[in-house]
Protein 1
Amino acid sequence: MPDAHGPSAGHVVTVIGLAGIPELDETDDLALLIHEAAIRVGGLQPADVVVVAQKAVSKVEGRVVRLADVEPSARAWELAGADGDPAHVEVILGESREVVRSRPPLVISETRHGFVCASAGVDASNTEEGTLVLLPLDPDASARRLRERLVELSGVEVGVIVSDSFGRAWRQGTTDVALGVAGITPLRDLRGELDAGGRELRATQIAVADELAGATELVMGKARQVPAAIVRGVDVRGEGSAHELVMPRERDLFR
Amino acid sequence: MPDAHGPSAGHVVTVIGLAGIPELDETDDLALLIHEAAIRVGGLQPADVVVVAQKAVSKVEGRVVRLADVEPSARAWELAGADGDPAHVEVILGESREVVRSRPPLVISETRHGFVCASAGVDASNTEEGTLVLLPLDPDASARRLRERLVELSGVEVGVIVSDSFGRAWRQGTTDVALGVAGITPLRDLRGELDAGGRELRATQIAVADELAGATELVMGKARQVPAAIVRGVDVRGEGSAHELVMPRERDLFR
């Protein structure tokens, strides 16, 4: 990573929230709204990474279902338990390849994309009463489409991440992670690089895209209508897919 | 979180690497080195969070063992398998309350502090040949000591996080998380807050301290001798412990 300030000045990364983007639906051009919000904070720059909240992406892609249209299965009734909504659980099951763990009404599952997360990413907050928002069908493709349009509008080769808040095994609280990426390398591979003592580094891959997503949560929040942010100062340009961030099943010790 | 720029300008967070800190050992005053490095980038400001890499903290605390001094047990030989170093695994077992999963030579365990991570945080990179660096005995206490000294030196009420790179279940690559905190609230609790539609938010706790730690990894890296960084623009002042970030055993579905 180049450091224009020299070794004693310290490398600087800036995270800029993109505010003033209204409530979204399928009629909106999200990339245009992001572009306009970016102009209000001085515009995009080369190697910027634009992180966009999954919910914003899902809404403009029409990934919304009405609970009233859902017929819960017996399994959904069972997994919902006394406190859950079977229709909500049915939607989660529809988005899941496999239930990994459950404790009614909590369901942790593998999504159609291969992500393991709570509720298959299905969410009821910040959405119209009686509706649920689903994850995009192909978040890498969503990121690519946003990136193409942003590059077209701004003339700047930015990277794009579609982010969501995931819980973690063993740790409390969510952190934002990358569900889809375009124009960036999501993992930094240190294999072969040397440590300060000249020995090869072993803890070898860093999930930079997840750290970028987490950093933008700090300016996005859930309740503040800031559905996107820019990260400036981390050059992760490249070609990659968020699937690189998914642990291959054969190496996964926790399923 | 107050936003001095108004809703259309976007909230800004800055992450500043603290470079020029030499290789460390027990003779070093880490807080003084951080204070001096901070002065070179303009000094600390109120509500800044200083994130310090665990390895730097462990080295000045003397949490280093020589492999030559270690007598591997039968269990260490077994868990090391054909490819591992039984002495290294013995050190990991000494730092562990319980082995959660193993696949020789990989050991995932619960540390004495309650963290679940690979190798109980024991690390061989960026350390003297033939030695291993262990996690601090009490990372919250390490953070408190650093904070007290930094406040004394700078006159500024900063927060402190001691960070480390942890792998995750189901996802590839490490992200930096908080092992110890002082002067900050590690979780942001949204329970009771309302979404943009006026309904109560459900995904209720955000692991802000982990997102802060992850953001600083973007400027620290492993091979670049930048063992600390400042995050500016996220007001998390409060009293808390990194133990709040550990999932209570009775709620943990993955042990």
Protein 2
Amino acid sequence: MTSLSAANREALKKTSTATLTTVLFKRGFRNVFIQGVFLLNRDGPRMVGEAFTLRYIPAREDLDQLGSFEGRGHPQREAIEACPPGNVLVMDARRDASAATGGDILMTRLMVRGVAGIVTDGGLRDSYTIEKLALPAYCAARSAPLNLVRHHAVDSQLPIGCGGVAVYPGDIVVGDPEGVVVIPAKIANEVAEEAAAQTLFEDWVEDKVKGGRSIFGLYPPSAETRAEFDAWRKKPR
Amino acid sequence: MTSLSAANREALKKTSTATLTTVLFKRGFRNVFIQGVFLLNRDGPRMVGEAFTLRYIPAREDLDQLGSFEGRGHPQREAIEACPPGNVLVMDARRDASAATGGDILMTRLMVRGVAGIVTDGGLRDSYTIEKLALPAYCAARSAPLNLVRHHAVDSQLPIGCGGVAVYPGDIVVGDPEGVVVIPAKIANEVAEEAAAQTLFEDWVEDKVKGGRSIFGLYPPSAETRAEFDAWRKKPR
Amino acid sequence: MTSLSAANREALKKTSTATLTTVLFKRGFRNVFIQGVFLLNRDGPRMVGEAFTLRYIPAREDLDQLGSFEGRGHPQREAIEACPPGNVLVMDARRDASAATGGDILMTRLMVRGVAGIVTDGGLRDSYTIEKLALPAYCAARSAPLNLVRHHAVDSQLPIGCGGVAVYPGDIVVGDPEGVVVIPAKIANEVAEEAAAQTLFEDWVEDKVKGGRSIFGLYPPSAETRAEFDAWRKKPR
Amino acid sequence: MTSLSAANREALKKTSTATLTTVLFKRGFRNVFIQGVFLLNRDGPRMVGEAFTLRYIPAREDLDQLGSFEGRGHPQREAIEACPPGNVLVMDARRDASAATGGDILMTRLMVRGVAGIVTDGGLRDSYTIEKLALPAYCAARSAPLNLVRHHAVDSQLPIGCGGVAVYPGDIVVGDPEGVVVIPAKIANEVAEEAAAQTLFEDWVEDKVKGGRSIFGLYPPSAETRAEFDAWRKKPR
Amino acid sequence: MTSLSAANREALKKTSTATLTTVLFKRGFRNVFIQGVFLLNRDGPRMVGEAFTLRYIPAREDLDQLGSFEGRGHPQREAIEACPPGNVLVMDARRDASAATGGDILMTRLMVRGVAGIVTDGGLRDSYTIEKLALPAYCAARSAPLNLVRHHAVDSQLPIGCGGVAVYPGDIVVGDPEGVVVIPAKIANEVAEEAAAQTLFEDWVEDKVKGGRSIFGLYPPSAETRAEFDAWRKKPR
Amino acid sequence: MTSLSAANREALKKTSTATLTTVLFKRGFRNVFIQGVFLLNRDGPRMVGEAFTLRYIPAREDLDQLGSFEGRGHPQREAIEACPPGNVLVMDARRDASAATGGDILMTRLMVRGVAGIVTDGGLRDSYTIEKLALPAYCAARSAPLNLVRHHAVDSQLPIGCGGVAVYPGDIVVGDPEGVVVIPAKIANEVAEEAAAQTLFEDWVEDKVKGGRSIFGLYPPSAETRAEFDAWRKKPR
């Protein structure tokens, strides 16, 4: 697997998920935006990192009791300690947010361990504490019930679905205040580069529009506009 | 079509959508509040204006490619430039917010052109930029994917549905931080006038309730309360 | 019915709904968190109080006209005046938030009367006014339409469902910024006590995690951790 | 309460729910068709009868155990024995069909007791046995789980909602293979009479259409068509 | 627009919608199956024909009264008389089946006029009469309420969405007992031809599987299997 | 893992899923009925067998092309050939039935191989052919689109969710015309035995009810009724 360069990792922190969907669409990817999740802590850092996956299935009353968390071996607790720094923990909770898939203590532990963020299509509990952590945390609902009433953590680092999108371990997961995009690992570098270029262009366009220019011939650009932008881009600033 | 007077346009900016639904209910209208949308920019101006409509159907892979935006003629781009200043652009996206129906560049253009606001029952992308514009923008979700993955802009200025409500071009669209109400054009002036009167009364009631008065006989008012209010209203202030 | 002690009432104001779901789960209760509601006014006081219930059924056009609110006897208006200070008014609106179940005037009256809060699985109107009141108010949506277009208030103080949870009059209803938990009346005191102890422990755990400690053996605690916590707890501070 | 005449009861058995919605619409009723239910036994008799209501709220683990059915006093069991012959048992299960609200033994008992039918917006279990009974039974799903996992029968003969429609005890409930319509008790006789006349006209129209006639001027009828129909109706047959 | 050949029209009557989705997928079309509709009359003829579209928006109380059907000009009634023989009437009801978009009289008129079928993502009323007509009729629900309570027919022969799929006037609409596929007009002939060939192959595969053969190397076929099939196909029968 | 005895396997074929949910409820299991699936072929055999699981995640355009089915190794094709005779193939399609998870050729292969049945919470295509096979097949919808447009088969024999229920490989899966129940493997024999006894009792009760007896004291039985049943059961027949 090609790894994401340090420069591109930084570049992706300045790229919007909107721009990324367009760059991925050009390569034939139509379903890359995790549906139905929102960011708890809008004042935190931007989220970029490799996907580390955790999968839940429905709970079963005989297995999912409080004792199951004790000692070692519970897949959720193991994942919290195993997710590498710089990675994003992505949870498949079958889009069921009627119970939590984590709370403030686990989220704090992820933050302290240097994890880049967390995404779940289930709920998060203690959400008003989590929203003050310096950890990007995306969930489908603020949901107090402990995971055992609905979810059973079963395994990690397998391909999963999250919010309707396929997530393979190692995919690059990017979050902004709008939501989360998943970039297939093998094209992450080229997507990052094209997205950075596209961001530069769109910022220039926004500037022109604020100045009163019509979108016709500007967005998307005509040949003249493209030349105008190229000239501007080469100007020393 | 009777046009909304300048005075009533200003009055509607001070009227709540809640009060408008009551005034419309008295005239037999039960379904006037656009369901499932929220305001992105709560610090912006209040929204009042004539509906300018845009309709999307589901995307089709052969037609909905990036090239379709080039040049002139794309219905979405044309609508952005055609919607008159003071009007509200209302989009029918079939209540499907899994993709966007516009982003920050188009919203900025609408703002610069003097459009009064925008309402869509689909998504908006670059939502955290849009929320800082001085343009009331209502959508069903923050949604990064470009419209082409789901939506095909097909025509404008036809009657549409938006959030389950009929919207005819020229209807008066009013938004507050709670949501959006659609007033049939032909009764917009009388509705505005009655709503202004009702607002005055409800502010007076709120004051009384804050002072400790029971709602019985007050809201709705008994004959005595009505007289008391009338007296107060006529008092010089 | 055992009544909640004053000390436990205060303790519950410092307890999270997340912790309460765990304490209730230990006693076999899996469905105690009202689904799909959110808090309008996050700066207000915490909500703890006995449930006072109000039930809506679907509206019927011949019965649900504006005149129905006049005089005495309308169940919604009666409930607003009857709900005792310190209680929480809980409304069953069949999880239909396409219309309101109350607005700013009624909410103000509740606040003035000393009611501890209000929970509805329908909508609230004038929500941007309500969110400034010192009254905890939970609803399923900001929804301008008056209740008559969808809801008919029919009776109060019967057992109801709210957000998928059974609510019996007198149950203890606790709200925090995450949502609302319903505690069966007869176990409210023991739940409050256990939750307070659990909160103390979790705050200590959070502190340890912030200091870099792994969750293994800590959360849930091993025998050693439990002893460590007990020693800490007994230390004079 | 005016009671439905024997002749009108028979007439309603030959009237479609479609025609009834039109007759009720003329009187201002727009929401009379129970949404989301279907008929299990299409070979059974047509259903007409007074509503006898039963209400469920969400189950609670401490109350809803198998022992609760023992002896007398369980509201569901009591309703099965109390619903008068000729009435229709209508159940409010909050449109949650993930568990049953009755099974074959209870349905057989209703049939033997001469009850006219049963409507629930929850599930029915043993549905493939029920579908062979001579008892019209409408439900939202075939659903095996016993009611205790989700539903708690709480009271009967109160106004309820069923499938989004208000049902007052004594309302006339009419079912055909398409579904179920609720007629307010006080207008049941006049609605039955107008529906019978409308049915006669529509059968005549259907005949004309089968013969090749255009619907213009026929449906709805012009003055000429109305005269033609009146002449036909008066002809001895 | 290329027109569908008579031979291909017949061929499509013997092709399954499943096979058509595969043939269209090869050409990049992923969204061609109308979601959420079912066939009322499974004993009727197979449906193939050009799309004739009709569009509904939400009803409005002042416009949608029974009088609106009178005389000429009502878009629904006009469409019933205008849809050419051999075409399929496709209705966009915004996937809202809580009211009907047609009933037995209109469906009978379509049948008599030689229309090839009808598809709506709303409801149909008098469904148990329609299911006996020799007219393929697909709907989202059996729904008694007249269209006026929810739907307003607004125009025809514009591009629409139906069950989440784009439908352009003239597209070829094919139905089998599983559902309905929409083929873009310009590729209808080539799709029909490839689908016929694929059907022949799949029938041969089904035969082999019934005889006990493994699917490996058979479905999809290896080079050997492909040769075997080609030999069989050329054999005189 | 205890294996299901041959006698209990046969007994379960005569047991209803309704009765099984009650027997499992007594042991604390509340969530055992797969939600949202129905039986395609009601004339086929009853379904009992060990769960063999297959898991789908969302499709991704670069991976999910027709070529992926070729040769060996595609998880869906491998599962079709690997599921042991007598087992039930249970598919986790994330409750998304907008595309198929199998069609007639694969279902025929399962039947020929002696598989006991198939359950998917996604769609099945060629459903009207499948419904004539002697293979119990449960799905969430008749859905023509090939799986590649939405689903990616990823692995088998892992614990999954299906229709909201946990399914572990080896669990006993029982289907009747109402739906499907999942019995944890370790208690399958005792559940089968208790369910058979309960079935005998309920058949006796049904007989009594048909004869006119009230349900009070009968269902559930009083001590007298229990004695009466025991006497009847011991009588030679």
